[in-house]
Amino acid sequence: MIARQAEAERERRAVTIQAEGELEAVQNMADAARTLNDEEGALHLRTLQTLNSLSSDDSNTVVFAVPAEALRALERIGSNGEAAVADAVSSASDKEGGAPASSSSSANAE
């Protein structure tokens, strides 16, 4: 009889300890969620940290989702960059080809 009471008391304490641990874990997760929400760049850093930890094991395959809006923005930046390079090449070739820009600079030098 005493053995059953002792076992029941141990089980009760184990359940209480487990519940306290779960409560603490939930509070820590809520704190982490608030930090990720409040600090600018924190979520991005956490994502990079997760990718870094996954990359140390060669047997993992990582599927990284990128929002379509981000891809479109990169596409626009890339096409604007290509246009700027084309303009720079065009103006540089005009200067080298004896265009009025180079003759005016030599006239100013005299």
Work out the number of β strands.
0
H-E order: HHHH
Question: What oligomeric state do the depicted chains represent?
Answer: single chain
Structural class: mainly alpha
Q: How many helix segments? A: 4
* Largest β sheet strand count, sense and barrel closure: none
Distance between the termini: 115 Å
The percent range for helix content is over 70%
Mean pLDDT: 79
When the domains are counted, the total is 2
pLDDT below 50 for ≥5 consecutive residues: which ranges?
98-110
Roughly what fraction of the amino acids lie in strands?
Answer: under 5%
**How does the overall form come out from the CA principal axes?**
rod-shaped
- Kindly provide the radius of gyration, computed on alpha-carbon positions and rounded to a whole number of angstroms: 32 Å
Compact summary:
With 110 residues, the protein is mainly α.
Model description:
- This protein is an all-alpha fold.
- It has two domains: 1-62; 66-110.
- The chain is 82% helix and 0% strand.
- The protein has four helices and no strands.
- It has helices at 2-38, 42-55, 68-96, 100-109.
- The longest helix is centred in the N-terminal third of the chain and has 37 residues, at 2-38.
- It starts with a helix and ends with a helix.
- Mean pLDDT is 79; it is low at 98-110.
